[in-house]
Write a structure and sequence with these properties.
With about 140 residues, the chain is mainly α. The protein is about 80% helix and about 0% strand.
Length: about 140
């Protein structure tokens, strides 16, 4: 159990450094200059995209879910089917959260309204796999 906790701590540090280093280029690439007060939305986009990727991996590779269930204490009602349902809900709805965070990045006066707002929310379904793929690519290409 200690090894598993250490692994998650190490993975958390890597994910944190990835999100921090990716924030600079991602904000300028996707949105240009972003006010400092709105950079939290960029972090939410990246964290949501990474969480979406973890949910997809959990659905595609059920052995990951079985390992996590066997290695952690949980209430008796949490079984593999229940966790698969939660992962499926995450895969479906996390991109909407990514789209919402992307919509909130520009200043209030620069945000579109009406149908353009709905388009920005739905754009999360494109951004979630794209941003998570870019995070993985950056992790693989990162020197030292």
């Amino acid at each position: 159990m200690t090894i598993l906790i250490s692994f998650f701590g190490f993975a958390g540090r890597i994910a944190g450094s990835l999100l921090t280093s990716a924030l600079g280029w991602a904000s300028s690439l996707l949105f240009g200059r972003v006010p400092r007060s709105h950079q939290v939305f960029l972090v939410l986009m990246m964290a949501g995209s990474f969480t979406w990727l973890l949910c997809v991996l959990g659905l595609v590779l059920p052995s990951i879910v079985a390992l996590l269930l066997s290695a952690t204490p949980h209430p008796p009602f949490v079984d593999q089917a229940w966790l698969a349902f939660v992962l499926l809900v995450g895969v479906i709805f996390l991109p909407l959260g990514v789209g919402l965070a992307g919509y909130l990045v520009p200043a209030a006066g620069e945000r579109p309204g009406g149908a353009a707002m709905v388009r920005d929310l739905l754009r999360g379904y494109l951004l979630a796999p794209l941003v998570s793929g870019l995070l993985l690519l950056q992790m693989c290409m990162r020197p030292g």
